[in-house]
Amino acid sequence: MTDRGAVRGDLAACVAAAVRGGVDWVQVRDRRLSGTALLDLTDSLLAEARSAAAARCRDVRVLVNRRIDVALAAGADGVHLGFDAVEPEVARELLGADALIGCSTHSPREAFERAAVASYTQLAPIFEPISKTSTRACLGLDGLREATSSGGARILAQGGIDAANARAVCAAGAAGIAVSGAILHARDPERAARALREALDE
Predict the structure, then answer these.
(1) Nearest to residue 159, comparing CAs of 183, 184, 177?
(2) Of 20, 27, 33, 170, which sees the most CB atoms within 10 A?
(3) Cis link prior to 125 (omega < 30° from 0)?
(4) 5 in any annotated domain
(5) Does pLDDT of 131 surpass 80?
(6) What is the mean pLDDT of residues 64-84?
(7) Does 128 fall in a domain?
(8) What's the pTM?
(9) pLDDT at residue number 8
(10) How many CB atoms lie within 10 A of CB 129?
(11) DSSP 8-class letter at 131
């Protein structure tokens, strides 16, 4: 998940490095930008991500936070919806059956309810976030297990996840992880991404 305020150096270069390291989805997120500026950023990051993935003979999916219009204009692979975005059903109608539609959730019950209409749900915070101070109580592995125990929910765990705890998060039922600080704050984003990738693959 991108954050221009948290990255060391150039964001596009960081995204390319992260993809080379094994990141397979990139969520373009910048609430400070709108319209043309956000589209320009998305175009840039999408090009860098796809170029880096092609060099590794792998695929990468690029999503845009909240803005369906920007996702459509950029040719992105989907959209991630927060609490103030349109309903997932509307996004699906506009983006089509093959698009990734994600939703932010903050409780096991909310994750379960959203699972019926979204491609995936992002559940946070599992642990204390690396990139910011959380305003919500951390759910921990018990909260993650509760959310995944019902089955059918494709949950990406978010919040305070790094290479040291990624295995435990997967063991608790997460389908994957969503990170920003673990890569953006790293002195070597490619190495940080590779450590995460290896932990998940194991």
Answers:
(1) 177
(2) 27
(3) yes
(4) no
(5) no
(6) 95
(7) yes
(8) 0.93
(9) 83
(10) 20
(11) S
The range of the structural domain enclosing residue 29 comes to: 11-201
Alpha helix (H) residue ranges in the chain: 11-21, 35-55, 68-74, 88-95, 108-115, 140-148, 166-171, 181-184, 189-201
Query: Is 1 domain-assigned?
Result: no
Please give the tally of structural domains in the chain. Answer: 1
Please give the angle made by the CA atoms of 97, 54 and 10, to the nearest 5 degrees.
95
Q: In whole angstroms, what is the distance from residue 13 CA to residue 34 CA?
A: 22
**Could you tell me the two tokens for 150?**
């019902």
**pLDDT tens for residues 22-71?**
999 999 999 899 899 999 999 999 999 999 999 999 999 999 999 999 99
Helix, strand, coil percentages, rounded to 5, for the chain = 45, 15, 40
Block residue for tokens 């389908």 = 175
List pLDDT tens digits, range 167-180. 999 999 999 999 99
Q: Which helix (H) or strand (E) holds 100?
A: strand 100-105
> Over 70: is that where the pLDDT of 152 sits?
no
Amino acid at 132: K
Block residue for tokens 């204009």: 73
CATH number, domain with residue 131: 3.20.20.70
Q: Is 125 contained in some domain?
A: yes
Nearest to 113 by CA among 98, 105, 86: 105
3-class secondary-structure state, position 84: coil
